[in-house]
Prior knowledge:
single chain; mainly alpha; MetI-like fold; 14 helices; elongated; disordered C terminus
Amino acid sequence: MTEAQATKAMIEAQRELGTHSQKAWNRFRRNRAALIGLAAVLLGTLLAILAPAVAPYDPVKMDLAISRQAPSSKNLLGTDELGRDILSRILYGFRISLTIGLVSVAVGLSFGVLLGAPSGYFGGWLDIVVMRVIDIMMSFPAILLAILVVTVLGPGLYNAMLAVGLAQVPLYSRLVRGLTLKLKSEDYVDAARALGANHSRIIFRHILPNCLSPLIVQATLNIASAILSAAVLGFLGLGAEPPTPEWGAMLSSGRLYMRVAPHISIFPGLAIMVTVLAFNLMGDGLREALDPRMSRLKI
């Protein structure tokens, strides 16, 4: 391949990527469920950012005189066992859940790329060693692996984020490795080699950008899984420490009062359900938008 042909192949690949992005957005906005999920995520994010302004009360301020009160005009979602306003705690709790989801996915994606891309690109003994380590990690259920990490490091918000992120590393590693194996023999990669690009430039400049579509979809879906896993850790007392308004911890404390004040558990549970559903709807929409074959296969 001559230098002129290599340059032309790279330009055509970049032009095709821009056209693909525009078509993907057009397909996404035709999916009503995905748009509802996106709107719910954006609304929740906005409320979380503006929580100090929109929350009616301090989320950690206790008032035992009004503990376990049912929803009313003063406390729209009622109060918990310590007299704290549940609506305020849910709004602040979304901040924590969203942070956990984003940081956990960032941790899992970063380690997954660093392990999967070189493994798929170079192959050989490196691929064997990395994949056997990944196989060992995958032999543990994700939530069990997260519990194991938190048990070793100790409970806490930061350790919970790290634990959930590390539990997602095997999924991203295998995904990136498979994509790299497929892409490393494409014409534009051969063109980059012909132009004298080194291995790191080929991986980070030409292969990984073309892995973005499936990685974005997987990351969006995994934010929902991370929020759910963090809620499980919080429910078990391995997540954020009291009095932090974390949804899983709120569920855990409210389960003792299900007979006399079920709203203490119901509203945090609904918040988890709606958030996870919104991210899943948005992720499914992205998957169909970024892979047109999915929309043709959909019944």
